[in-house]
Design goal:
Elements: E1 9-12, E2 15-18, H1 19-45, E3 50-56, H2 75-82, E4 85-91, H3 97-106, H4 140-146, E5 150-156, E6 180-184, H5 202-227, H6 235-257, H7 259-263, E7 266-268, E8 271-274, H8 282-296, E9 302-307, H9 328-350, E10 357-363, H10 395-398, E11 399-405, E12 414-421, H11 425-432, H12 449-452, E13 463-468, E14 471-477, E15 486-493, E16 506-516, H13 535-550, H14 562-565, E17 576-577, E18 580-581
Helix pairs in contact: 2-9, 5-6, 8-9
């Protein structure tokens, strides 16, 4: 409140004039100056928002109650949606782990970082490999560190560890903007569970085993022929062949025989603390570490990426959830995930952080329907959407849950049907943190803030490009003057299980398949020439957008080439003396 003096008349150069008019103008000016200064000071002193980004591995969009499931119980995830904003057309940039997570971390399609595969290997297969997220890539965590944030990653990484030596950690989370890391630098594969059949290049392992058995039989025949005098051969030559065979066999056998010990580990920052990991205690340890990170940093701005290794196979489960769901071990895993999300919500609320914390929930891509039987299911359910994990551009492989809650900042119960992307999290958190987006690199994501806060009703994604490896399988077009969303498929997968993006594993479509996924989200009714007058225009617009998009692409080092994905013993993380790696960590209570 501003106080004004009583009116006294005076005279200036222009005649009779109330002195208080001058005083009043000066008072108002001074008051406005103080008000602006106070607002600037308050804005400067206002606490920056915290971020808790929660990602599940291989979760199908149809596995969650608020997205249509009525047989698996997900009350905490449903509550998150009820108190926040739900995105119904939230899209992963790839249908498999490594490229999708690359795009999430960088806000860019994975092939821009060299993590779009040109061959059969679509993800990082060994911890002791040299491929991974390049050190020069800008992640949202790096930019938040520059804004004074403490950043943590608890859970799965799967974007590489080292480049040229065991201790360079060039791809490690600590080198990509995370002050603290606890979890799996790799992922869960069947090899992590004793008794499970391997799922790392299983067909190649079988083929090599057969070859080595044939070679062993041939060597045995040579030895017998020499011993019986049927064949004349120098002993040195025979010995050389035997040694060569043994070395070749061990070179193949050792990496696969020790996968459980070498691939399945837990690290705290750059130290291996459990090798091999114990799946029975994994949930407990991850939640303890996530909660401790939040509690340690409750009085300063923080970002936590809680990257759950659930519900990727092998499916392990805590005793308290075993047999609780209607859908076997997989359903039990979903209900355990929901409990974990609930624990994270309770931690934020207990510390009175809900009003300054943006919480985000999603999956890295669609559910794995190649291993689903839904009676004793091991894989996910993608609801009404066609396809699943690894299947190129079909909706079931890339449409994922997307929920954001920020108490008193975002409208509770809001639903957004516009196309959005996992890549949008990068610009969203960077802008909210007060950072600047990089101007020396191409970003494919757009800030979600205008949509979330109702400042616009239209997504900035007019076109979205759906890649499988480096191969463009489909394109999504949301015309600026229409509510329609068209999907144009150039290639489609032939199998639910191959996870391959080219060659005999896909079918090329010429002319392309076209669907309107607003009226036909299941992609069941192909738009046909003659019945759809807009079809020619859709194809013209999409082809033009593809040409423009390709002009923005460069050719970075292929991080998923065979030399970069194959196992190298000198890069293998190890606790103890290599190759006898073994250590365990006590359970958290």
């Amino acid at each position: 409140m501003f106080m004004f003096t009583n009116v006294n008349l005076g005279q200036n150069e222009e005649g009779i004039y109330p002195k208080t008019t001058q005083r009043r103008e000066m008072s108002i000016f001074f008051g406005l100056f103080l008000l602006i200064a106070q607002c600037l000071i308050e804005a400067e002193d206002a606490p920056k928002p915290n971020f808790v980004l929660m990602m599940v591995d291989d979760l199908g969009i149809g596995d969650v109650g608020c997205y249509g499931n009525n047989t698996i119980r997900t009350p905490n995830i449903d509550r998150l949606a009820l108190e926040g904003v739900k995105l119904t057309q939230h899209i992963a940039a790839a249908p498999l782990c490594t490229p999708s997570r690359t795009a999430f971390m960088t806000g860019r399609y994975a092939l821009r970082s060299g993590l779009g595969s040109t061959g059969r290997v679509q993800v990082i297969l060994f911890l002791g490999a040299s491929g991974g997220l390049p050190p020069n890539e800008t992640t949202f965590s790096k930019l938040l560190q520059k804004q004074g944030y403490t950043t943590g990653l608890v859970g799965k990484w799967h974007l590489g560890v080292s480049c040229s030596s065991r201790n360079d950690h060039c791809h490690h989370p600590n080198n990509h903007g995370f002050n603290y890391f606890y979890g799996l630098p790799f992922t869960k594969f069947n090899d992590c569970q004793p008794g499970e059949a391997t799922d790392i290049l299983a067909d190649l392992q079988d083929a090599l085993w057969n070859i080595f058995m044939l070679l062993a039989l041939a060597l045995l025949t040579l030895i017998l022929a020499k011993m019986t005098g049927v064949l004349e051969m120098r002993s040195k030559m025979l010995a050389f062949l035997v040694v060569l065979y043994v070395l070749a066999f061990l070179t193949w056998y050792i990496p696969f025989a020790f996968l459980r010990t070498w691939n399945c580990i837990i690290m705290r920052n750059q130290k291996v603390v459990e090798q091999p990991l114990n799946l029975d205690t994994l949930t407990e340890k991850l939640m303890y570490e996530a909660e401790q990170f939040v509690e340690r940093n409750q009085n300063r701005p923080f970002l936590l990426f809680l990257s759950l290794p659930h519900v990727h196979t092998p499916l392990a489960i805590s005793k308290q959830f075993t047999g609780k769901s209607k859908h076997g071990l997989y359903g039990d895993n979903i209900e355990e995930v929901d409990w974990m999300i609930g624990r994270m919500m309770k931690t934020i609320e207990k510390l009175n952080l809900a009003e300054r914390t943006l919480m985000y929930f999603t999956s890295d891509h669609g559910g794995d329907i190649g291993i689903s039987d839904w009676q004793g299911a091991k894989g996910g359910w993608n609801g009404i959407y066609r396809g699943g994990k690894g299947m190129g551009g079909w909706e079931g492989g890339i449409r994922v849950p997307g929920i954001l809650r920020w108490t008193k900042r975002l409208s509770a119960g809001k639903i957004i049907h516009e196309p959005t992307s996992l890549m949008d999290i990068f610009p969203t958190v960077v802008k909210l943190a007060g950072g600047e987006l990089p101007n020396d690199t191409i970003l494919d994501g757009h800030s979600l803030l205008p949509l979330l806060e109702g400042k616009t009703k239209r997504s900035e994604h007019e076109f979205m490009f759906h890649y499988c490896g480096v191969y463009l399988h489909a394109v999504r077009w949301h015309p600026r003057d229409s509510d329609s969303v068209f999907k144009v498929h150039f290639f489609t997968s032939n199998s639910n299980t191959s996870f391959r993006c080219h060659g005999d594993s896909v079918t090329q479509h010429d002319p392309p398949l076209v669907f309107d996924i607003i009226s036909d989200p299941s992609e069941a009714k192909q738009l046909m020439t003659g019945t759809e007058p807009c079809l020619a225009e859709v194809l013209r617009q999409v082809r033009s957008a593809v040409e423009e998009h390709r002009r923005t692409l460069t050719s970075p080092t292929n991080q998923l080439s065979w030399p970069n994905v194959l196992w190298k013993p000198w890069l293998q993380p190890c606790c103890g003396v290599f190759p006898f790696c073994s250590c365990s960590e006590s359970s958290r209570v």
